[in-house]
């Protein structure tokens, strides 16, 4: 059983606050993903949970007990790093035995744990190999195996896939999801890749500049982003943000005309509209924002059209791959589907 509580956790490095009051509850057996742009504090937060860094202030409780004075080795937490430093002179078996031996376990128990981890991670045929005789993905699995043999209650993974190529990355990602089911522990996974976060997580924690922007299930974040940061961070291609001025149900964009969006929240005059690429229809005239075609991307099953509104905003819209505007500068009309538009306060960026 492993339940984690972070309460107003802060961290300063030489006078700069890099974590600015983190409050977070992580339930037993959850797979939680910390996601956010480079430098937002994900690794720092993870290192604090592991006990590798001190907090400047705040509390971290594991199953209700403060971890303030508990050293890393006594927390029941194992961490797998981005650079999975294996010992080059030891074979896979020895590398995996290392952590478990440090715990003072006897030889038979260590062996039992290694065999179990090797089976789970399909490393059995590789136990006698040296790290240099392994592929990147295999090395990464050994690093995970080494953490597994310690039987941690909490598993921390810091960008474990970043050194792998795209194909391997999706393989190992599947393995990690399966591993989480098999071991039934709590897992915290750090990435700056929102696709990785969406596919793996029970719960995503979106971080930005040392703060949490939103916590929720992948679907929740996609369908009801709390603010413009989360709205544009989650989802690919990105949601377009459009500054509009409201009069009744009509939303006007400088140089592109106005569109009626019935059902919009009542408040706000200066509003930011959030429209995902599949929430636009491309029309020739009629209701919609006037725009100038810039270029298109063909992806096989669909295509994306990029167009510029009168105020300079670049908009992306999904379209059928077949007939689409071809000439840069061509005038098109982009009609947002009212029910799929997100509304944010024009100033604060918070969801209306
Ligand atoms: N030991 C340190 N001394 C001073 N500043 C540090 C130290 N470690 C991290 N920082 C700073 O703290 C901030 C957060 O870093 P952190 O590594 O937690 O970010 P991250 O979200 O994990 O980024 P990335 O995705 O690039 O790994 C950064 O601005 C970083 O430069």
TrEMBL record:
The keyword Phosphoprotein does not apply. It comes from Ketogulonicigenium vulgare (strain WSH-001). This is ABC sugar transporter, fused ATPase subunits. Its EC number is 3.6.3.25. The lineage of its organism: Bacteria, Pseudomonadati, Pseudomonadota, Alphaproteobacteria, Rhodobacterales. Belongs to the ABC transporter superfamily. It comes from the Bacteria. Gene3D superfamilies: 2.40.50.100, Nucleic acid-binding proteins, P-loop containing nucleotide triphosphate hydrolases. GO terms for cellular component: ATP-binding cassette (ABC) transporter complex, substrate-binding subunit-containing.
